[in-house]
Design goal:
single chain; 325 residues; alpha/beta; Rossmann fold; 30% helix; 23% strand
Length: 325
């Protein structure tokens, strides 16, 4: 049995832009490379944090793994099998094992359904409850598991706070006993104090239910708190992966260093680091052939603008995509 529960190999998603104003004026189809050949793996029982700026392709990656969006190329291996080759029936069955918790708890729950109806729907789809009594019992178990009570089962989503709604979304993901849960910025819409409670809930559930997580965020403090390993993403590419201590204490890629330097220090006596990256973030639309960071990187050479660097292991379980390290 492989140590990896899920592996992505050369995963790509390219969107053809042929009907937007710029493409029509230019008289040609442009290509938006949202995810452009990424590789990563998730071990059983660990949390992989996927971090990067808004628009870098993190959420698209989550949707590619679950096939809510069909990839343009690559492989997604789940327990050794390529999900992209599954027929519809087998993919639906596999979705019991891979669940997604969305970013916005205000829009991810149907406002016209009670919590009982919302949480029992996965049980109906996957035929996991024989009758109403079994569904009711399971829903109450799920509510208790995420820190809510039986009295919440017959209420509607608008009667709950943001943190409570996200607990309900987590309960819905747990309803089918998944092995892997992908959190697509699941705490970014919550107050800071509530974020800590929900993060602690994720960790408690992981220990209790032996779950594996892919946790997507742009908040570095969240990633550091929840993750075992981290993958850093920039404009559709993964530029560095490693254990959380290596990434935060010994970053090697220029973008990772700049990302960490951008985090403000609470001590007013500490002088902020000088910005190492200048200029605009590269566009994922018809990008040049070389490194996406080369127009901003302080150590870039002419070679960087011509050849895309590959992820190379620089130390144990630490991979960096840079020609100049």
């Amino acid at each position: 049995m492989s140590e990896y529960l899920l592996e992505a190999r050369n995963l790509k998603k390219h969107f053809m832009l042929d009907n937007d104003t710029v493409s029509r004026l230019a008289g040609k189809t442009r290509t938006l490379k949202a995810v452009d050949g990424i590789d990563f793996a998730v071990r059983r029982g660990e949390t992989l944090g996927l971090v990067g700026e808004s628009g870098c392709g993190k959420s698209t990656t989550a949707r590619l793994i679950t096939r809510l969006v069909e990839p343009s190329a690559g492989e997604v291996l789940f327990k050794g099998e390529n999900l992209l080759e599954f027929k519809r029936a087998k993919m639906q069955q596999t979705r019991k094992s891979i669940q997604l918790v969305f970013q916005d708890p205000y829009s991810s729950l149907n406002p016209r359904k009670t919590i009982m109806q919302i949480l029992s729907r996965p049980l109906e789809v996957h035929k996991l409850a024989a009758n109403w009594v079994e569904k009711r019992r399971r829903v109450l178990e799920l509510l208790n598991l995420v820190g809510l009570g039986e009295e919440h089962a017959d209420r509607y989503p608008h009667e709950f706070s943001g943190g409570q709604r996200q607990r309900i979304a987590i309960a819905r993901a747990l309803a089918v006993d998944p092995e892997l849960i992908i959190g697509d910025e699941p705490v970014s819409a919550l107050d800071v104090s509530i974020q800590a409670q929900v993060l602690n809930l994720f960790r408690e559930l992981q220990e209790k239910l032996s779950l594996t997580y892919i946790f997507i965020a742009h908040d570095l403090s969240v990633i550091r708190h929840i993750s075992d390993r981290v993958a850093v993403m920039y404009v559709g590419k993964i530029v560095e992966t490693g254990n959380v201590a290596d990434i935060f204490d010994k970053p090697q890629h220029p973008y990772t260093k700049a990302l960490l330097d951008a985090v403000p220090d609470a001590d007013p006596m500490v002088e902020p680091p000088k910005l190492t990256l200048k200029g605009e973030v590269a566009t994922p639309i018809d990008p040049p052939p070389g490194c996406r960071l080369c127009n901003r990187c302080p150590i870039a050479t002419d070679h960087c603008s011509q050849v895309m660097p590959e992820l190379v292991e620089t130390s144990k379980d630490h991979f960096v995509a840079c020609h100049n390290l």
